[in-house]
Design goal:
Strand content: under 5%
Structural class: mainly alpha
Largest sheet: 2 strands, antiparallel
Order of helices and strands: HHHEHHHHHHHHHHEHHH
Bound molecules: zinc ion
Strand order of the largest sheet: 1-2
C-alpha cells in the first residue's frame, strides 16, 4: 500500500530548549509561589500600581512598537518614542524586534499556510497560541531578507545585539530596583516581574490563536482572521484582526471611534507632540468598498443556495441583487474617475480651494452611496435566509 508522505510541518521537530525552560521558569512560580505569596504576605498599593503600569508599557510596546511600527511600518516614530518601545518590548520576552517583525511579516504573507506561516491557525489553537515556540519547526526558520529596512534601524540592531542583557535587565533588574525602593524585593519580583510577564505574553499569544478562531469576518473570509470586540479589550486593540489582515499597513486596527484600540490612541496622541508622524490610514471609501464586497458575497451565496428556479420570490431577490451589483460597479467607476481627476489636479497644481472642496463633496457622496447600498444588500440576504 503506498504511503502518504508526512507534510513537512507535522514532522516531529526537536524541542526548543531555551523557550521551554523560559516558560517553565515563569509559569511554575506564577501558579505556585505567586498565589502562596498573595495569601500569606499580600501586595501593597505601590506594587499593584507598578504591576499595572509595567503590564501596560510591555503590552503597548509590542502592539504599537513591535507590531504596528516595526513589522508593518504603519507610522514613523521619533527616537524618543522608539527607545522606550524597544526597552519595554524586550521586557515582553518575545524575542528581538528583528526576529519578531520578520516572522510576523511571514505570518501575513503566508497566513494559514501549514508549512510556511510560523503560527498557522490551521495547525490548531494550541500550536498557534504557543506550541509553535516550543519546538524548532521548519516554519519558524529565520530569514531576514524580508526585514532589510529593520537592519538599517540602529535602535532595532542595538536591541538585537544586546537582547539578552536588555531582556534580563528589564525583567529582573527593573522589578528588583522597584522592590528595593519599596522595601519588598520578592513581592516586586513576583508581581511586576513574573506575573506581569506571564499575563503580557498570553495576551499577545491570544492574537495569534483566538483572533484567528473566534469572531466575525466583516471584511474577508479569505483567511482565518476575525474581528472580536472582547479580545480587543485585553489586547490593547488588536482584536480587530480581520480588518488588520486585509489592511495591515493602517496604524489603526479598530477604525471606528467606538472601537477599543488604545494602541491607536497612543500613536495618534503621540503625533500631537511630534513623537510620531506619517500615520497611515486606509481611505474610508476603500474600507466601505471592502465591507460591501463581502456583503455581496454573502448575499450571492445565500440567494443561490436557496435558489429554486421556480420560486418567484428568490428570482426577484436575484434580480434586485444584480441591479445592486450594477449600481456598485457604476459607483466604483465614478470613484476611479475622481481619483484620476484628483491626481491630475495635484500634478498640475491647479487644484484651487473650490475644486478641492468640490472633490471632497463628491467623494463624501460616493461614500454615502456605498453605505446605503450596504444596508440594502444586507436586507436582501436577510430576506433570502
Ligand atoms: Zn494574524
Ligand atoms: Zn500584523
Amino acid at each position: 500500500m503506498p504511503q502518504t508522505p508526512t507534510p513537512l510541518s507535522f514532522e516531529r521537530a526537536p524541542l526548543n530548549w531555551p523557550a521551554v525552560i523560559m516558560f517553565v521558569l515563569t509559569t511554575v512560580p506564577a501558579v505556585t509561589i505567586f498565589p502562596w505569596y498573595l495569601i500569606t504576605v499580600g501586595f501593597d498599593t505601590f506594587e499593584v500600581i507598578s504591576f499595572v503600569l509595567l503590564l501596560g508599557a510591555t503590552g503597548l510596546s509590542i502592539t504599537a512598537g513591535y507590531h504596528r511600527l516595526w513589522a508593518h511600518r504603519a507610522y514613523e516614530a521619533h527616537p524618543l518614542m522608539k527607545i522606550p518601545l524597544m526597552l519595554f518590548g524586550a521586557m515582553a520576552l518575545q524575542n528581538s524586534i528583528l526576529i519578531w517583525a520578520s516572522m510576523h511579516r511571514v505570518h501575513h504573507k503566508h497566513v494559514d499556510d501549514e508549512d510556511q506561516d510560523p503560527y498557522s491557525a490551521k495547525r490548531g489553537l494550541w500550536f498557534s497560541h504557543m506550541g509553535w515556540m516550543l519546538r524548532d519547526y521548519p516554519s519558524s526558520a529565520l530569514d531576514f531578507k524580508n526585514a532589510r529596512d529593520l537592519k538599517e534601524d540602529p535602535i532595532v540592531m542595538f536591541q538585537h545585539r544586546h537582547y539578552l542583557a536588555l531582556a534580563l535587565g528589564m525583567n529582573f533588574g527593573l522589578p528588583a530596583l522597584l522592590g528595593w525602593i519599596n522595601g519588598d524585593l520578592w513581592g516586586s519580583l513576583l508581581l511586576a516581574g513574573v506575573m506581569r510577564l506571564v499575563i503580557s505574553q498570553h495576551v499577545t499569544f491570544f492574537i495569534n490563536s483566538l483572533a484567528h478562531y473566534w469572531g466575525r469576518q466583516p471584511y474577508t473570509d479569505a483567511n482565518s482572521a476575525r474581528d472580536n470586540d472582547l479580545l480587543a479589550l485585553v489586547t490593547y486593540g488588536e482584536g480587530y484582526h480581520n480588518y488588520h489582515h486585509l489592511f495591515q499597513w493602517d496604524y489603526r486596527n479598530g477604525i471606528r471611534w467606538w472601537h477599543f484600540d488604545p494602541t491607536k490612541w497612543l500613536i495618534a496622541a503621540s503625533s500631537w507632540v511630534g513623537l510620531t508622524r506619517n500615520l497611515k490610514r486606509v481611505p474610508n471609501f476603500v474600507v466601505q468598498r471592502a465591507l460591501l464586497q463581502r456583503q455581496f458575497e454573502v448575499a450571492r451565496e445565500r440567494i443561490s443556495h436557496s435558489a429554486g428556479e421556480t420560486d418567484p420570490r428568490l428570482a426577484r431577490l436575484h434580480g434586485l441583487l444584480e441591479q445592486e451589483w450594477q449600481h456598485f460597479s457604476h459607483t466604483l467607476a465614478e470613484w476611479t474617475q475622481l481619483q484620476t481627476e484628483r491626481f491630475d489636479a495635484a500634478k498640475q497644481q491647479l487644484a484651487d480651494q473650490w475644486e478641492n472642496s468640490d472633490m471632497r463633496k463628491r467623494l463624501r457622496a460616493l461614500e454615502i452611496t456605498l453605505r446605503q447600498q450596504n444596508a440594502r444588500v444586507r436586507l436582501l440576504h436577510l430576506q433570502a435566509a
